[in-house]
Specification:
489 residues; mainly alpha; two-stranded antiparallel ribbon; 1% strand; symport; transmembrane; amino acid:sodium symporter activity; membrane
Length: 489
């Protein structure tokens, strides 16, 4: 039953919907992920991504790192290897296409998450798909927000937490001979220390951990590329040619390349699942589009950069032959490929990288679960503490248990999660475009730092208390805001 549901959801329905939303918003927004690609980086250069308001909300940069912590994980190490094994090198090209379209989807969902966020009594923000569904679609759709929150809790808060613990523990046992029970206990203790400190401690941890793991993995990839520099153009050409069936390759031909590339790409970058918007909403930004752009950059980092690094490590190595294939798959293929470049210590490096990726993902999964609980029972500290204890127990239990059935169940619930979010995105695409147009108009008016005036969007049921913009962010916007308000009236 689980297999049939997975095949229907991920093999047909969701792939079509995710591509349709990605392409649809790309065209409707006039290719926003390309138009504002340079601006995504300029936000960091101008310091906007690091600014906080008087309440000490998370910065845009911290929210980016927290979402990267969730996106970057087993999909970048094991998922890419699976895509190449089953779909051939051409699958990587279709992962790139999905990544570029996913940037638009992530832009839309994270912009909406920011626009519809709510201010909490303690000065923090809450938001995400459940919030933009309930506020943006109205009371008649409250049931969909409830279903989404429940699926988010079950999938990420419980299921994927145990699965990440299992992946890390078994990888460490294979590489270093450490019994899974010891790895599980160590992870449970470390996770407990972090999550009982709340979202700000989680963000501070991500602020340290994510750059270390991402740049560490990038560094080893750069070393491998430098060692094989003359072959890199050949491998990139192989990827493109294989994507269109122009190269003889194992994996089932062009159909398998497209299917595996699309499926693995979606699993890796999570664009459209609605997970990242829960994090995107907690940051302070002067305009929702700022965070939409930053989160689109997160998809680029995940799919176009880190997944490509893994693909080139595999294709430039000798453990995989594009014409013959290999009996090794998943993490083991990535480990074996890196070992052919740098020696046997490459296997241990991949295990350590997977451990860091998995650990950061567990922390991210916890926050998603907490956010869903907050939607059901706002500010219930006893419920939050019970959930934290459950997550700690899951880290220990998951490390020592075969979770194949749990994985199949989590795939189904994640598919349903994506389905609920994509329906909401389709219905809220018009408000998303309206918010983007407000940002575009301010940029065209020469305003260096566009701001969001909730008074101009009262019909969208925006929480105005969540949009108290700091004075320094309003510089140069007075005349434009006054003219916009007059036009709205």
């Amino acid at each position: 039953m689980l297999e049939l549901l997975n095949d229907f959801l991920w093999g047909k329905l969701l792939i079509a919907m995710l591509i349709a939303v990605g392409i649809g918003f790309t065209v409707a927004s006039r290719f926003v992920q390309f138009r504002y690609f340079g601006r995504m980086f300029r936000i960091f250069g101008a310091g906007q991504a690091f600014s906080r308001d008087k309440h000490g909300h998370l910065s845009s940069f911290q929210a980016l790192l927290l979402s990267v912590a969730g996106r970057v994980g087993g999909g970048n190490i094991a998922g890419v290897a699976v895509a190449i094994t089953l779909g051939g090198p051409g699958a990587i090209f279709w992962m790139w296409v999905v990544g570029l379209m996913g940037m638009a989807t992530s832009f839309l969902e994270c912009t909406l998450a920011q626009a519809y966020k709510t201010a909490e009594p303690d000065g923090t923000y809450r938001g995400g798909p459940a919030y933009y569904i309930s506020r943006g679609l109205g009371r008649n759709w409250k049931w969909l927000a409830v279903v989404y929150s429940f699926l988010l809790l079950v999938t990420f808060g419980f299921g994927f937490t145990a699965l990440q613990s299992y992946s890390v523990a078994t990888s460490f046992e294979d590489a270093f001979g450490v019994p899974v029970i010891y790895t599980g206990i160590a992870m449970a203790i470390a996770v407990g220390v972090i999550i009982f400190g709340g979202v700000k401690r989680i963000a501070r941890t991500a602020e340290v951990l994510v750059p270390v793991m991402a740049f560490g993995y990038l560094a080893i990839a750069v070393v491998v590329l430098a060692m094989n520099l003359e072959q890199v153009p050949t491998m990139l050409a192989l990827i493109v040619k294989s994507a269109f069936g122009l190269e003889p390759a194992v994996g089932g031909g062009i159909g398998a390349a497209i299917l595996m590339g699309v499926k693995r790409g979606l699993f890796s970058n999570e664009a459209g699942l609605g997970s990242a918007p829960n994090v995107a909403a907690v940051a302070y930004v002067p305009h929702p589009v700022n965070q939409g752009g930053v989160q689109a950059l997160s998809v680029f980092i995940d799919t176009l950069v880190l997944c490509t690094c893994t693909a080139l490590i595999i294709l430039l190595g000798t453990a995989y032959d594009p014409t013959l294939g290999t009996d090794v798959g998943g993490v083991a293929l990535t480990q074996a490929s890196l070992a052919t470049h740098v020696g046997e210590w490459g296997r241990e490096f991949v295990s350590i990288a997977l451990m860091l990726f998995g650990f950061s993902t567990i922390i991210y999964n916890y926050y998603l679960g907490e956010n869903s609980l907050n939607f059901f029972s706002e500010g219930n500290h006893m419920l939050f503490n019970a959930f934290r204890v459950a997550v700690i127990v899951l880290c220990g239990w998951g490390a020592t248990t075969d979770l194949s059935t749990v994985f199949g169940f989590a795939d189904v619930t994640m598919g349903l999660l994506a389905l609920a979010n994509l329906l909401a995105l389709i219905m809220l695409m018009r408000p998303g475009l309206r918010i983007l147009r407000d940002f575009d108009d301010q940029v065209e008016a020469g305003i260096p730092r566009p701001v969001f005036d909730a008074a101009n969007f009262v019909d969208l049921n925006i929480d105005a208390t969540a949009w108290e913009i700091e004075p320094e962010d309003r510089q140069g916007t007075g005349r434009f805001v006054a003219e916009s308000a007059a036009a709205t009236r």
